[in-house]
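Below is how a single chain appears once it has passed through the pipeline. First comes the sequence as given, then the structure the pipeline wrote out for it. We keep one example in the README because the format questions we get most often are answered faster by looking than by reading.
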Amino acid sequence: MSEGTLAKIIERVERLSPCTVAVVGDLMLDRYLYGSVERISPEAPIPVVKFQSERSVLGGAGNVVANLCGLGADVKCFAQLGGDPAAREVLKLVDAVNGSSRGSVELFPFHKETTTVKTRVIGNGRQQMMRLDHEDILPLDPESEGELLVRLSELAARRLSAVILSDYGKGMCSFSLCRKVVELCRAHRIPVFVDPKGRDWQRYAGAELVTPNVKELSDVAGFHISNDDDEALVTQAQKIRSSFGLNNLLVTRSEKGSTFVGERECFDEPSQAVDVYDVSGAGDTVIAAVAFFRAYGVDWRNCCRLSNAVAQVVIGKAGTYPISYRELKGLCLSQAKEHPPSGGQKILDAAAAVRRVKAWKEQGEKVVFTNGCFDVFHAGHVDSLTRARTLGDRLIVGLNSDRSVTNLKGDTRPINSEQNRAAVLAALECVDAVVIFDEDTPERLLSLIRPDVLAKGGDYRPERIAGAAYAGRVEILPLLPGFSSTSIIDRLRENE
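Resulting structure:
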Protein backbone atom coordinates (compact mmCIF):
# COMPACT_ATOMS: atom_id res chain seq x y z
CA MET A 1 0.00 0.00 0.00
CA SER A 2 1.21 3.48 -0.82
CA GLU A 3 0.22 5.16 2.42
CA GLY A 4 1.72 8.46 1.33
CA THR A 5 -0.55 8.53 -1.71
CA LEU A 6 -3.60 7.72 0.43
CA ALA A 7 -2.70 10.44 2.91
CA LYS A 8 -2.50 12.96 0.06
CA ILE A 9 -5.91 11.88 -1.25
CA ILE A 10 -7.42 12.22 2.22
CA GLU A 11 -6.03 15.73 2.63
CA ARG A 12 -7.14 16.78 -0.88
CA VAL A 13 -10.72 15.54 -0.44
CA GLU A 14 -10.90 17.22 2.96
CA ARG A 15 -10.53 20.61 1.26
CA LEU A 16 -13.37 20.01 -1.24
CA SER A 17 -17.10 20.67 -0.89
CA PRO A 18 -19.22 17.77 0.43
CA CYS A 19 -20.53 15.33 -2.16
CA THR A 20 -24.19 14.26 -2.12
CA VAL A 21 -24.99 10.54 -2.06
CA ALA A 22 -28.42 8.91 -2.06
CA VAL A 23 -28.90 5.62 -0.20
CA VAL A 24 -31.86 3.38 -1.04
CA GLY A 25 -32.13 0.29 1.09
CA ASP A 26 -33.10 -1.68 4.15
CA LEU A 27 -32.66 0.53 7.18
CA MET A 28 -32.62 -1.37 10.46
CA LEU A 29 -31.77 -1.13 14.12
CA ASP A 30 -28.87 -3.19 15.45
CA ARG A 31 -29.31 -3.85 19.16
CA TYR A 32 -26.55 -5.41 21.29
CA LEU A 33 -27.21 -7.00 24.69
CA TYR A 34 -24.03 -7.58 26.69
CA GLY A 35 -23.58 -9.92 29.61
CA SER A 36 -21.31 -12.39 31.37
CA VAL A 37 -21.40 -16.15 30.90
CA GLU A 38 -20.44 -18.26 33.89
CA ARG A 39 -22.68 -21.35 33.77
CA ILE A 40 -24.88 -23.63 31.69
CA SER A 41 -28.65 -23.59 32.16
CA PRO A 42 -30.05 -26.59 34.13
CA GLU A 43 -33.12 -26.48 31.84
CA ALA A 44 -31.25 -27.02 28.57
CA PRO A 45 -27.61 -27.30 27.39
CA ILE A 46 -27.32 -23.60 26.69
CA PRO A 47 -25.21 -20.85 28.32
CA VAL A 48 -26.82 -18.46 30.77
CA VAL A 49 -26.03 -14.83 29.94
CA LYS A 50 -26.25 -12.48 32.90
CA PHE A 51 -27.36 -9.13 31.43
CA GLN A 52 -25.06 -6.14 32.01
CA SER A 53 -25.76 -3.46 29.39
CA GLU A 54 -27.22 -2.73 25.97
CA ARG A 55 -26.40 -0.55 22.98
CA SER A 56 -28.30 0.32 19.81
CA VAL A 57 -26.83 1.58 16.51
CA LEU A 58 -28.02 2.10 12.95
CA GLY A 59 -27.72 -1.09 10.93
CA GLY A 60 -28.04 -2.16 7.29
CA ALA A 61 -28.54 0.87 5.08
CA GLY A 62 -28.38 2.94 8.27
CA ASN A 63 -24.80 1.86 8.80
CA VAL A 64 -23.97 2.83 5.21
CA VAL A 65 -25.47 6.26 5.93
CA ALA A 66 -23.51 6.63 9.19
CA ASN A 67 -20.25 5.77 7.40
CA LEU A 68 -20.93 8.21 4.57
CA CYS A 69 -21.70 10.98 7.05
CA GLY A 70 -18.58 10.14 9.04
CA LEU A 71 -16.51 10.55 5.88
CA GLY A 72 -18.20 13.88 5.14
CA ALA A 73 -20.97 13.24 2.60
CA ASP A 74 -24.40 14.84 2.54
CA VAL A 75 -26.72 11.83 2.45
CA LYS A 76 -30.32 11.43 1.29
CA CYS A 77 -31.70 8.16 2.67
CA PHE A 78 -34.82 6.39 1.34
CA ALA A 79 -35.98 3.58 3.61
CA GLN A 80 -38.91 1.85 5.31
CA LEU A 81 -39.76 2.37 8.98
CA GLY A 82 -42.56 0.97 11.12
CA GLY A 83 -44.81 2.92 13.45
CA ASP A 84 -43.19 1.41 16.51
CA PRO A 85 -40.75 2.28 19.32
CA ALA A 86 -37.85 0.91 17.26
CA ALA A 87 -38.58 3.50 14.55
CA ARG A 88 -38.45 6.30 17.11
CA GLU A 89 -35.11 4.91 18.29
CA VAL A 90 -33.84 4.95 14.68
CA LEU A 91 -34.88 8.61 14.28
CA LYS A 92 -32.98 9.54 17.46
CA LEU A 93 -29.88 7.80 16.13
CA VAL A 94 -30.22 9.66 12.82
CA ASP A 95 -30.36 12.94 14.77
CA ALA A 96 -27.22 11.87 16.64
CA VAL A 97 -25.40 11.23 13.35
CA ASN A 98 -26.33 14.74 12.19
CA GLY A 99 -24.97 16.18 15.40
CA SER A 100 -21.64 14.34 15.45
CA SER A 101 -20.49 13.79 11.84
CA ARG A 102 -18.68 15.82 9.20
CA GLY A 103 -21.59 15.17 6.86
CA SER A 104 -25.37 15.23 7.23
CA VAL A 105 -28.34 12.97 6.53
CA GLU A 106 -31.90 13.69 5.42
CA LEU A 107 -34.26 10.73 5.88
CA PHE A 108 -37.21 10.04 3.57
CA PRO A 109 -39.14 7.27 5.43
CA PHE A 110 -41.82 5.04 3.92
CA HIS A 111 -44.25 3.18 6.17
CA LYS A 112 -44.35 -0.52 6.92
CA GLU A 113 -45.70 -2.42 9.91
CA THR A 114 -42.50 -3.36 11.72
CA THR A 115 -39.08 -1.71 11.80
CA THR A 116 -36.38 -4.32 11.17
CA VAL A 117 -34.47 -4.99 14.39
CA LYS A 118 -31.52 -7.38 14.81
CA THR A 119 -30.84 -8.14 18.47
CA ARG A 120 -27.52 -9.81 19.24
CA VAL A 121 -26.66 -11.29 22.62
CA ILE A 122 -22.94 -10.93 23.36
CA GLY A 123 -21.29 -12.96 26.11
CA ASN A 124 -18.07 -12.11 27.93
CA GLY A 125 -17.34 -9.02 25.88
CA ARG A 126 -17.15 -10.39 22.35
CA GLN A 127 -18.72 -13.85 21.86
CA GLN A 128 -22.03 -13.68 19.97
CA MET A 129 -24.37 -16.16 21.66
CA MET A 130 -27.49 -15.70 19.51
CA ARG A 131 -29.38 -13.30 17.25
CA LEU A 132 -33.09 -12.46 17.31
CA ASP A 133 -34.67 -10.74 14.26
CA HIS A 134 -37.90 -8.71 14.16
CA GLU A 135 -38.91 -7.93 10.57
CA ASP A 136 -41.57 -7.57 7.90
CA ILE A 137 -40.36 -8.36 4.39
CA LEU A 138 -42.57 -6.23 2.17
CA PRO A 139 -41.82 -4.15 -0.97
CA LEU A 140 -42.94 -0.56 -1.35
CA ASP A 141 -46.47 -0.08 -2.57
CA PRO A 142 -46.74 1.45 -6.07
CA GLU A 143 -47.63 4.91 -4.74
CA SER A 144 -44.60 5.02 -2.41
CA GLU A 145 -42.33 3.68 -5.17
CA GLY A 146 -43.50 6.46 -7.49
CA GLU A 147 -42.92 9.09 -4.78
CA LEU A 148 -39.39 7.80 -4.17
CA LEU A 149 -38.52 7.95 -7.88
CA VAL A 150 -39.86 11.50 -8.18
CA ARG A 151 -37.72 12.66 -5.24
CA LEU A 152 -34.67 10.83 -6.55
CA SER A 153 -35.17 12.36 -9.99
CA GLU A 154 -35.31 15.84 -8.45
CA LEU A 155 -32.03 15.17 -6.63
CA ALA A 156 -30.42 13.79 -9.78
CA ALA A 157 -31.34 16.91 -11.71
CA ARG A 158 -29.61 19.11 -9.11
CA ARG A 159 -26.54 17.74 -7.40
CA LEU A 160 -26.12 14.02 -6.86
CA SER A 161 -22.75 12.28 -7.02
CA ALA A 162 -23.74 8.64 -6.47
CA VAL A 163 -26.52 6.27 -5.43
CA ILE A 164 -26.06 3.23 -3.20
CA LEU A 165 -28.50 0.30 -3.20
CA SER A 166 -28.10 -1.34 0.21
CA ASP A 167 -29.98 -4.60 -0.29
CA TYR A 168 -30.47 -6.79 2.79
CA GLY A 169 -33.41 -8.69 1.36
CA LYS A 170 -35.93 -6.99 3.67
CA GLY A 171 -38.21 -5.81 0.87
CA MET A 172 -37.06 -2.28 0.07
CA CYS A 173 -34.87 -3.23 -2.88
CA SER A 174 -37.48 -5.03 -4.94
CA PHE A 175 -36.74 -6.05 -8.53
CA SER A 176 -39.02 -3.29 -9.80
CA LEU A 177 -37.49 -0.53 -7.69
CA CYS A 178 -33.87 -1.55 -8.38
CA ARG A 179 -34.43 -1.58 -12.14
CA LYS A 180 -36.11 1.83 -12.09
CA VAL A 181 -33.42 3.37 -9.86
CA VAL A 182 -30.59 2.09 -12.07
CA GLU A 183 -32.33 3.26 -15.26
CA LEU A 184 -33.02 6.70 -13.76
CA CYS A 185 -29.38 7.05 -12.68
CA ARG A 186 -28.02 5.91 -16.03
CA ALA A 187 -30.16 8.55 -17.74
CA HIS A 188 -28.53 11.20 -15.51
CA ARG A 189 -25.03 9.58 -15.70
CA ILE A 190 -24.99 8.96 -11.95
CA PRO A 191 -23.08 5.83 -10.84
CA VAL A 192 -24.95 3.19 -8.84
CA PHE A 193 -23.11 1.14 -6.20
CA VAL A 194 -24.75 -2.07 -4.95
CA ASP A 195 -24.34 -4.18 -1.82
CA PRO A 196 -26.17 -7.22 -3.25
CA LYS A 197 -28.52 -9.89 -1.92
CA GLY A 198 -29.85 -13.11 -3.42
CA ARG A 199 -28.97 -14.89 -6.65
CA ASP A 200 -30.79 -12.81 -9.27
CA TRP A 201 -28.57 -9.85 -9.98
CA GLN A 202 -30.48 -8.91 -13.09
CA ARG A 203 -32.15 -6.29 -10.92
CA TYR A 204 -28.75 -4.52 -10.70
CA ALA A 205 -27.95 -4.60 -14.44
CA GLY A 206 -26.14 -1.43 -15.46
CA ALA A 207 -24.75 -0.73 -11.98
CA GLU A 208 -21.30 0.83 -11.79
CA LEU A 209 -20.08 -1.45 -8.98
CA VAL A 210 -21.42 -4.47 -7.06
CA THR A 211 -19.62 -5.51 -3.85
CA PRO A 212 -20.28 -9.17 -2.97
CA ASN A 213 -18.33 -11.23 -0.50
CA VAL A 214 -17.08 -14.66 -1.58
CA LYS A 215 -20.19 -16.46 -0.28
CA GLU A 216 -22.51 -14.11 -2.14
CA LEU A 217 -20.46 -14.59 -5.31
CA SER A 218 -20.67 -18.37 -4.82
CA ASP A 219 -24.46 -18.19 -4.41
CA VAL A 220 -24.80 -16.43 -7.75
CA ALA A 221 -22.35 -18.79 -9.47
CA GLY A 222 -24.34 -21.78 -8.15
CA PHE A 223 -21.37 -23.56 -6.58
CA HIS A 224 -18.76 -23.03 -3.87
CA ILE A 225 -15.83 -20.78 -4.78
CA SER A 226 -12.81 -21.14 -2.53
CA ASN A 227 -11.41 -17.92 -1.15
CA ASP A 228 -7.95 -19.40 -1.74
CA ASP A 229 -8.55 -20.11 -5.44
CA ASP A 230 -7.68 -16.75 -7.03
CA GLU A 231 -8.05 -17.95 -10.62
CA ALA A 232 -11.51 -19.49 -10.12
CA LEU A 233 -12.73 -16.46 -8.22
CA VAL A 234 -11.66 -14.01 -10.94
CA THR A 235 -13.02 -16.26 -13.72
CA GLN A 236 -16.45 -16.55 -12.09
CA ALA A 237 -16.52 -12.86 -11.18
CA GLN A 238 -15.88 -11.95 -14.84
CA LYS A 239 -18.62 -14.32 -16.02
CA ILE A 240 -21.11 -12.92 -13.53
CA ARG A 241 -20.15 -9.34 -14.32
CA SER A 242 -20.63 -9.91 -18.02
CA SER A 243 -23.81 -12.02 -17.83
CA PHE A 244 -25.66 -9.50 -15.63
CA GLY A 245 -24.40 -6.40 -17.42
CA LEU A 246 -22.45 -4.98 -14.47
CA ASN A 247 -19.59 -2.57 -15.05
CA ASN A 248 -17.37 -3.71 -12.15
CA LEU A 249 -17.26 -6.10 -9.20
CA LEU A 250 -15.36 -5.67 -5.94
CA VAL A 251 -15.22 -9.03 -4.16
CA THR A 252 -14.43 -8.69 -0.46
CA ARG A 253 -12.31 -11.62 0.78
CA SER A 254 -11.89 -11.24 4.57
CA GLU A 255 -8.23 -11.68 5.53
CA LYS A 256 -7.20 -11.77 1.84
CA GLY A 257 -8.43 -8.22 1.26
CA SER A 258 -10.42 -7.68 -1.92
CA THR A 259 -10.33 -8.35 -5.66
CA PHE A 260 -11.48 -5.79 -8.23
CA VAL A 261 -12.81 -7.19 -11.51
CA GLY A 262 -13.69 -4.79 -14.30
CA GLU A 263 -13.87 -4.75 -18.06
CA ARG A 264 -10.49 -2.99 -18.42
CA GLU A 265 -8.63 -3.88 -15.24
CA CYS A 266 -8.40 -6.59 -12.63
CA PHE A 267 -6.30 -6.52 -9.47
CA ASP A 268 -6.00 -7.76 -5.91
CA GLU A 269 -5.78 -5.38 -3.01
CA PRO A 270 -4.38 -7.21 0.06
CA SER A 271 -5.51 -6.33 3.54
CA GLN A 272 -3.25 -5.20 6.36
CA ALA A 273 -2.67 -7.61 9.24
CA VAL A 274 -4.87 -6.47 12.15
CA ASP A 275 -6.57 -8.00 15.15
CA VAL A 276 -10.18 -8.78 14.15
CA TYR A 277 -12.68 -7.98 16.88
CA ASP A 278 -16.01 -7.93 15.02
CA VAL A 279 -16.77 -8.02 11.25
CA SER A 280 -20.37 -6.80 11.67
CA GLY A 281 -21.11 -4.05 9.18
CA ALA A 282 -17.72 -4.19 7.47
CA GLY A 283 -19.40 -4.56 4.05
CA ASP A 284 -21.43 -1.39 4.70
CA THR A 285 -18.24 0.49 5.45
CA VAL A 286 -16.51 -0.77 2.29
CA ILE A 287 -19.27 0.28 -0.10
CA ALA A 288 -19.65 3.65 1.63
CA ALA A 289 -15.92 4.36 1.32
CA VAL A 290 -15.67 3.28 -2.32
CA ALA A 291 -18.72 5.33 -3.36
CA PHE A 292 -17.52 8.35 -1.38
CA PHE A 293 -14.01 8.51 -2.82
CA ARG A 294 -15.16 7.56 -6.31
CA ALA A 295 -17.51 10.56 -6.16
CA TYR A 296 -14.36 12.72 -5.90
CA GLY A 297 -12.76 11.12 -8.95
CA VAL A 298 -10.33 8.84 -7.09
CA ASP A 299 -9.17 5.93 -9.29
CA TRP A 300 -10.43 2.41 -8.59
CA ARG A 301 -7.19 1.07 -7.12
CA ASN A 302 -6.91 3.84 -4.54
CA CYS A 303 -10.64 3.58 -3.80
CA CYS A 304 -10.07 -0.08 -2.98
CA ARG A 305 -7.04 0.74 -0.83
CA LEU A 306 -9.04 3.31 1.08
CA SER A 307 -11.94 0.89 1.55
CA ASN A 308 -9.47 -1.67 2.95
CA ALA A 309 -8.14 0.99 5.29
CA VAL A 310 -11.59 1.85 6.66
CA ALA A 311 -12.39 -1.85 7.05
CA GLN A 312 -9.14 -2.19 8.98
CA VAL A 313 -10.47 0.37 11.47
CA VAL A 314 -14.02 -0.96 11.92
CA ILE A 315 -13.24 -4.67 12.32
CA GLY A 316 -11.11 -3.76 15.30
CA LYS A 317 -14.17 -2.36 17.09
CA ALA A 318 -17.02 -4.12 18.87
CA GLY A 319 -20.34 -4.30 17.03
CA THR A 320 -21.45 -2.20 14.06
CA TYR A 321 -19.10 0.77 14.01
CA PRO A 322 -19.08 3.63 11.46
CA ILE A 323 -15.80 5.15 10.34
CA SER A 324 -14.89 8.77 10.98
CA TYR A 325 -12.80 10.87 8.65
CA ARG A 326 -10.52 11.73 11.55
CA GLU A 327 -9.77 8.04 12.17
CA LEU A 328 -9.11 7.31 8.51
CA LYS A 329 -6.90 10.36 8.11
CA GLY A 330 -4.97 9.47 11.26
CA LEU A 331 -4.41 5.91 10.05
CA CYS A 332 -3.14 6.95 6.60
CA LEU A 333 -0.92 9.73 7.98
CA SER A 334 0.65 7.47 10.60
CA GLN A 335 1.36 4.77 8.03
CA ALA A 336 2.81 7.35 5.66
CA LYS A 337 5.31 8.33 8.37
CA GLU A 338 6.24 4.69 8.89
CA HIS A 339 6.68 4.15 5.13
CA PRO A 340 8.01 7.36 3.52
CA PRO A 341 7.14 7.75 -0.15
CA SER A 342 10.71 8.23 -1.19
CA GLY A 343 11.36 4.55 -0.68
CA GLY A 344 14.90 5.29 0.52
CA GLN A 345 17.78 6.81 -1.45
CA LYS A 346 16.59 8.93 -4.39
CA ILE A 347 19.75 8.85 -6.55
CA LEU A 348 19.56 5.52 -8.42
CA ASP A 349 21.33 3.66 -11.20
CA ALA A 350 19.26 2.45 -14.15
CA ALA A 351 18.67 -1.06 -12.75
CA ALA A 352 17.48 0.26 -9.38
CA ALA A 353 15.23 2.77 -11.14
CA VAL A 354 13.59 -0.02 -13.15
CA ARG A 355 12.89 -1.96 -9.94
CA ARG A 356 11.53 1.16 -8.23
CA VAL A 357 9.23 1.96 -11.17
CA LYS A 358 7.95 -1.62 -11.26
CA ALA A 359 7.02 -1.41 -7.56
CA TRP A 360 5.28 1.92 -8.05
CA LYS A 361 3.27 0.67 -10.99
CA GLU A 362 2.24 -2.46 -9.08
CA GLN A 363 0.82 -0.07 -6.48
CA GLY A 364 -1.21 1.59 -9.22
CA GLU A 365 0.85 4.79 -9.27
CA LYS A 366 1.41 6.86 -12.42
CA VAL A 367 5.10 7.49 -13.21
CA VAL A 368 6.28 10.71 -14.89
CA PHE A 369 9.73 11.13 -16.46
CA THR A 370 11.59 14.30 -17.40
CA ASN A 371 15.22 15.04 -18.10
CA GLY A 372 17.84 17.74 -18.43
CA CYS A 373 21.32 18.98 -17.55
CA PHE A 374 20.23 21.20 -14.65
CA ASP A 375 23.73 22.69 -14.60
CA VAL A 376 22.98 26.03 -12.94
CA PHE A 377 19.74 25.40 -11.08
CA HIS A 378 17.17 28.23 -11.25
CA ALA A 379 13.49 29.12 -10.81
CA GLY A 380 12.63 27.90 -14.30
CA HIS A 381 13.81 24.42 -13.34
CA VAL A 382 11.71 24.48 -10.18
CA ASP A 383 8.64 25.51 -12.18
CA SER A 384 9.07 22.76 -14.79
CA LEU A 385 9.70 20.03 -12.22
CA THR A 386 6.74 21.08 -10.13
CA ARG A 387 4.49 21.07 -13.22
CA ALA A 388 5.79 17.65 -14.25
CA ARG A 389 5.04 16.20 -10.81
CA THR A 390 1.36 17.19 -11.07
CA LEU A 391 0.98 14.87 -14.09
CA GLY A 392 1.27 11.72 -11.98
CA ASP A 393 2.09 10.17 -8.62
CA ARG A 394 5.89 9.81 -9.01
CA LEU A 395 8.52 11.90 -10.82
CA ILE A 396 11.81 10.49 -12.12
CA VAL A 397 14.43 12.92 -13.40
CA GLY A 398 16.97 11.73 -15.97
CA LEU A 399 20.18 13.73 -15.46
CA ASN A 400 22.86 14.13 -18.11
CA SER A 401 26.26 12.98 -16.81
CA ASP A 402 29.30 15.28 -16.89
CA ARG A 403 30.49 13.57 -20.09
CA SER A 404 27.09 13.96 -21.69
CA VAL A 405 26.88 17.67 -20.79
CA THR A 406 30.34 18.29 -22.24
CA ASN A 407 29.32 16.57 -25.49
CA LEU A 408 26.23 18.78 -25.72
CA LYS A 409 27.45 22.11 -24.31
CA GLY A 410 31.22 22.18 -24.94
CA ASP A 411 34.42 21.82 -22.93
CA THR A 412 33.55 24.60 -20.44
CA ARG A 413 30.50 22.75 -19.18
CA PRO A 414 29.24 21.54 -16.80
CA ILE A 415 29.78 24.17 -14.13
CA ASN A 416 28.58 21.77 -11.40
CA SER A 417 29.47 18.08 -11.22
CA GLU A 418 26.88 15.37 -11.81
CA GLN A 419 27.03 14.41 -8.12
CA ASN A 420 26.26 17.97 -7.02
CA ARG A 421 23.50 18.40 -9.62
CA ALA A 422 21.92 15.09 -8.59
CA ALA A 423 22.03 16.07 -4.91
CA VAL A 424 20.17 19.34 -5.61
CA LEU A 425 17.45 17.51 -7.56
CA ALA A 426 17.10 14.78 -4.93
CA ALA A 427 16.54 17.42 -2.25
CA LEU A 428 13.33 18.60 -3.96
CA GLU A 429 10.08 17.24 -2.54
CA CYS A 430 8.53 16.94 -6.00
CA VAL A 431 11.31 14.61 -7.22
CA ASP A 432 11.07 10.92 -6.30
CA ALA A 433 14.16 9.59 -8.09
CA VAL A 434 17.20 10.83 -10.04
CA VAL A 435 19.01 8.69 -12.63
CA ILE A 436 22.28 9.80 -14.31
CA PHE A 437 22.79 8.74 -17.93
CA ASP A 438 25.87 9.01 -20.18
CA GLU A 439 24.25 9.26 -23.62
CA ASP A 440 23.31 12.52 -25.34
CA THR A 441 19.61 11.63 -24.98
CA PRO A 442 17.69 9.56 -22.40
CA GLU A 443 16.25 7.22 -25.06
CA ARG A 444 17.97 4.09 -23.74
CA LEU A 445 16.91 4.94 -20.17
CA LEU A 446 13.33 5.52 -21.31
CA SER A 447 13.31 2.14 -23.06
CA LEU A 448 14.03 0.54 -19.68
CA ILE A 449 11.76 2.64 -17.46
CA ARG A 450 8.80 3.05 -19.84
CA PRO A 451 7.02 5.81 -17.86
CA ASP A 452 3.32 6.60 -18.10
CA VAL A 453 4.11 10.23 -18.96
CA LEU A 454 7.15 11.87 -20.60
CA ALA A 455 7.23 15.57 -19.70
CA LYS A 456 9.39 17.93 -21.75
CA GLY A 457 9.79 21.68 -21.47
CA GLY A 458 9.93 23.96 -24.48
CA ASP A 459 8.38 24.03 -27.93
CA TYR A 460 9.19 20.47 -28.99
CA ARG A 461 6.89 18.44 -31.19
CA PRO A 462 6.17 15.09 -29.45
CA GLU A 463 7.25 13.01 -32.46
CA ARG A 464 10.70 14.66 -32.39
CA ILE A 465 11.42 13.98 -28.72
CA ALA A 466 13.98 11.20 -28.17
CA GLY A 467 12.44 8.16 -26.52
CA ALA A 468 8.85 9.36 -26.86
CA ALA A 469 7.80 5.96 -28.22
CA TYR A 470 8.59 4.36 -24.83
CA ALA A 471 6.16 6.56 -22.86
CA GLY A 472 2.41 6.24 -22.47
CA ARG A 473 2.00 9.85 -23.56
CA VAL A 474 4.05 13.03 -24.00
CA GLU A 475 3.29 16.36 -22.31
CA ILE A 476 4.97 19.61 -23.40
CA LEU A 477 5.46 21.99 -20.48
CA PRO A 478 5.62 25.77 -20.93
CA LEU A 479 8.93 27.39 -20.03
CA LEU A 480 9.14 30.13 -17.44
CA PRO A 481 10.38 33.12 -19.50
CA GLY A 482 13.70 34.78 -18.67
CA PHE A 483 15.48 31.77 -17.20
CA SER A 484 18.19 29.53 -18.67
CA SER A 485 21.45 28.13 -17.36
CA THR A 486 23.33 29.33 -20.47
CA SER A 487 22.13 32.94 -20.14
CA ILE A 488 22.99 33.01 -16.43
CA ILE A 489 26.51 31.73 -17.17
CA ASP A 490 26.94 34.27 -19.99
CA ARG A 491 25.93 37.14 -17.70
CA LEU A 492 28.38 35.97 -15.05
CA ARG A 493 31.21 35.88 -17.59
CA GLU A 494 30.32 39.36 -18.86
CA ASN A 495 30.68 40.66 -15.31
CA GLU A 496 34.06 39.07 -14.69
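The longest helix spans residues 142-158.

See the next section for the split statistics.
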